[in-house]
């Protein structure tokens, strides 16, 4: 009797799993037979929870789930794969150079997000490459290209808000925050985070949650050094090894332009001719320019200074000092420039160098 009851329990469990579980039907056309595909938790070690063998370019995985979970699908032979949502239903996956997922509501939404992001990245890359090859273009052309980049990002953010807005009460909305925080201003980011239900803010994110926590800390520091706030003082060596206290420069000048850059950063190098023009035009009218490099190699930093003819104050401490200052200012990307007045108030932040030049025309040529 007990044996019959046990068999019935097993059969009922299998039936329930088939009804409430997930099935992953995958295609992996470039993989030889025997290639393994793994389901992994998104944690520090990408812990495997299940696997399947590829045969004739296909594989299948299945399991029970009583809630949605974000997992990675990984390959044993290449850096192929990507995130999926384990949810009830049949999830369709295509492995290869471009990873695709779909077939269930949340995976369809996740695919929509990644497809739109890839489209935006492609457009922006083409514009950046063009700017790298055509340094001496007019401000009108630069404005037009900047507008095109803004439009591409705006289209993506609209898709992101649509997908995120419809999924803030499940793990997909929370996961998308970890994949897109760089596209939001600090104010927008904290507004979005406030909409995440409390039960999705705990350690269920594992490594993702830690990343969001780090991002929140950076954005808090960016808010603390935004327009209208006071600058943060620091001391770093210049390119001759002399220690420079930043406040000594600020208090002696009407305005100080603080530029975060690095010699390995193409957009930074692209802006240097404009900063050079600003320096030459306004150095005798009360403007100081300070470039703070995030280079980790002193020789490459010095080469960049020489090649780009950067004759103004150059600061860098490759081991940790430069990074600590950038962290204190909440710098998320370079180049980032700040314009500071003699009272220490930040009056511009994060605008292109040519826009700062236009502002200085008004400030120093009343």
In short:
By secondary structure, the protein is of the alpha+beta class.
Q: Approximately how much helix is present in the residues?
A: 40-55%
CATH architectural name of the largest domain: 3-Layer(aba) Sandwich
Supply Rg. 26 Å
Query: Which sequence of strands runs across the widest sheet?
Result: 13-12-11-14-15
Shape field = elongated
Task: Report the sheet-strand fraction.
Answer: 15-25%
Largest sheet: 5 strands, mixed
> How many strands?
15
Contiguous low-pLDDT stretches (5 residues minimum) are 6-16
Query: What is the H-and-E element order?
Result: HEEEEEEEEHHHHHEEHEHEHEHEEH
> What distance separates the N and C termini?
97 Å
CATH topology of the largest domain: Glutaredoxin
Look at the structure and name the CATH superfamily of the largest domain: Glutaredoxin
- The total tally of domains equals 3
Name of the CATH class of the largest domain = Alpha Beta
Question: Helix segment count?
Answer: 11
User: Which structural category fits the helices and strands?
Assistant: alpha+beta
Mean pLDDT across residues: 85
């Amino acid at each position: 009797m007990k044996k019959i009851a046990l068999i019935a329990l097993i059969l009922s469990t299998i039936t329930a799993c088939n009804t409430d579980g997930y099935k992953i039907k995958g295609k992996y056309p470039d993989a030889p037979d025997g290639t393994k595909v793994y389901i992994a938790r998104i944690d520090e070690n990408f812990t495997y929870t299940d696997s399947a063998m590829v045969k004739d370019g296909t594989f299948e995985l299945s399991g029970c789930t009583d809630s949605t979970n974000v997992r990675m699908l990984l390959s044993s032979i290449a850096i192929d794969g990507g995130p999926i949502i384990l949810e009830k239903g049949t999830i369709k996956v295509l492995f290869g150079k471009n990873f695709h997922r779909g077939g269930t509501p949340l995976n369809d939404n996740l695919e929509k997000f990644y497809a739109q992001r890839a489209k935006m990245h492609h457009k922006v890359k083409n514009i950046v490459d063009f700017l790298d090859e055509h340094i001496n273009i007019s401000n009108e052309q630069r404005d037009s290209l900047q507008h095109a980049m803004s439009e591409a990002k705006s289209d993506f953010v609209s898709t992101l808000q649509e997908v995120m807005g419809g999924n803030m009460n499940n793990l997909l909305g929370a996961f998308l925050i970890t994949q897109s925080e760089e596209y939001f201003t600090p104010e927008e980011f904290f507004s979005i985070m406030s909409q995440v239900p409390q039960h999705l803010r705990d350690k269920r994110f594992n490594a993702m949650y830690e990343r969001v926590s780090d991002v929140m800390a950076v954005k808090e520091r960016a808010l603390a050094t935004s327009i209208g706030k006071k600058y943060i003082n620091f001391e770093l060596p210049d390119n001759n090894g002399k220690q420079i206290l930043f406040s000594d420069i600020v208090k002696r000048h009407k305005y100080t332009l603080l530029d975060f850059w690095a010699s390995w950063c193409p957009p930074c190098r692209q802006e240097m001719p404009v900063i050079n023009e600003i320096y030459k035009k306004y150095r005798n009218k009360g403007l100081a320019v300070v470039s703070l490099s995030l280079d980790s190699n002193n020789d490459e930093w010095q080469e960049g200074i020489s090649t780009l003819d950067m004759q103004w104050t150059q600061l860098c401490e490759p081991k940790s000092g430069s990074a600590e200052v950038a962290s204190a200012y909440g710098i998320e990307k370079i180049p980032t420039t700040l314009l500071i007045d003699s009272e220490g108030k930040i009056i511009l932040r994060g605008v292109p160098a040519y826009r700062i030049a236009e502002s200085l025309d008004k400030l120093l040529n009343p």
